[in-house]
Amino acid sequence: METTFGRLHPGAQHLTxxxxxxxxxxxxxxxxxxxxxxxxxxxxxxxxxxYAFAGLFFFLVGGIEALLIRAQxxxxxxxxxSFQFYNELFTMHGTxxxxxxxxxxxxxxxxxxxxxxxxxxxxAFPRLNAFAFxxxxxxxxxxxxxxxxxxGAPDIGWYGYAxxxxxxxxxxxxxxxxxxxxxxxxxVLGVSSIVGALNFIVTIINLRAPGLTMxxxxxxxxxxxxxxxxxxxxxxxxxxxxxxLMMDRQFGTGFFxxxxxxxxxxxxxxxxxxxxxxxxxxILPAMGVISEVIPTFARKPLxxxxxxxxxGAVIGFYGFTVWAHHMFTTGLGSIGxxxxxxxxxxxxxxxxxxxxxxxxxxWGGQLHMRTPMLFALGFIWMFMIGGFSGVMHSAAPADTxxxxxxxxxxxxxxxxIGGTLFALLAGLAYWFPLIFGRYPIERLGKRxxxxxxxxxxxxxxxxxxxGLNGMPRRTAVYDGNxxxxxxxxxxxxxxxxxxxxxGLYLWTLIRSYRQGPRxxxxxxxxRTLEWRVSCPPPAYNFAKIPLVHARDDFWxxxxxxxGAASRRPGPEQLTSRVARESAHLLSPTGEAPGxxxxxxxxxxxxxxxxxxxxxxxxxxxxxxxxLCFVLHWMPGAIAGAALxxxxxxxxxxxxxGGYHVHPEHPEKTD
Length: 670
Fold this sequence. Notes:
The protein is mainly α.
């Protein structure tokens, strides 16, 4: 049976309406399947899947844009694309990959996995969680609307440097609003990110299972918490910058207009005060994923857990102190450059500490080279290469030479794509049995890894040499006598191989979903609470909230302290072990209970939040109001604002509502 929140265990068929309170209308019939159930869902697991589907779609879009860019510069003096279209691709590729692909894929894991890891039944504010996704989708559509209007997509670069974004430089004709769509779309995305971050912080602090102290939290949950604080502290800077830019373009103010006393460099400061913490907003969840995968497949606890957690906090703190290393060529002065050079060197220390902890976890472990483990090891290798080149940029003289060359492109692609992407692919394979109830097909998964690994390195490693030889970024055409031919051709061939590898990985997921071996409960013999539930989890997550006794509590339960870690079975032994031995560990509700649980479910069942149209309605109103504002249709903008207020009011008076599920007593009726 399907519910709004996921697949129920067969024994949990009975749903009853919860007592209504402050409702403006009677409770509606529950819709458990079909499109409406997804449009009105407030379940964190389904919302996580929505983020994943959206992130994968925009990753495909950004990948196509990248392939077109590489096709243009594969050979010298190429005329495949016009300069205008190339600049549009350059702008939209960066924007799409960072804001519309990597960030939502990270949010997908945070939404789906984090509440399960802390023993919660949902996030603190389920409807607000749904609102965050629909607002994200509204912002993503606004940003990409430029492709479908006469002016085309913006050609300002994903960093939006002033004065390139002013009407004098960005608008191709009177009434060109593609740049305005980009600006307002990013503003709407900021609303989504801040709302989601606040929700995660409240959830982690208030909804942890009894006994799950902060120093027992899984590392992925810690990284979710740090990332959420980074979002809340960094997004105001880009919000201010975008508001000022919008006012310059819409109302003729002069924040960035030199002729009116403005300072274009102000945009760079505001953008990079956000932009460098944004790097860690992307990479910290990836580090959390790796910190879950490696101990599981090394069959030993994470080495130096407190240090890994502390280093994540230090990375988040120092992320706000290094922004100006992006501006070493702007004339900061020797004191400013020296200060930011030092902080840039310092931030490499906690990052290196994490790498040593992961290697320490691998050392002496019983390594099981499954698909998730391969991608996790690939992450370490790629991220180290990106880190080595990043340390080089902390030296102002070296950075001055390498700035705006392909060396920088190689650096941040090794960090954000070779790092973050490999970690996200590891997480997809690792949690695939939990989410879909089937194992990923190992043969296909390993083939996809090696193709992706080879294609990625062939694409981006030659860019180091192209940059050192002087090839500038953001160039659509180069002459055949400049020495860039071989490197660019190799990179373009590598991009094609990388695309094939990612396509093979996607095909692996689809084949695994349809034909993969059915996963037993606890398929990897894992450590954390999310693996105590059935695969996939029931709608309510836990029939009984677990009582946590130790870090890595599931291992602590299955293998008491007197059992040596070296005697833990490997993943290849699990299928037969679970089939033979786990029956007595499993409750009738389909989860593996611990030695104790806090209490039985409430007498009238487990309360689950109700479906709601209002998060979607309010998000659509925000989209409509924003679009009308960009088009200068003020009546429509005012009407959209009124709909936003109306949606918020009806949302507030919708009441708690909800349904009760009786997982242990399906025969009970109310």
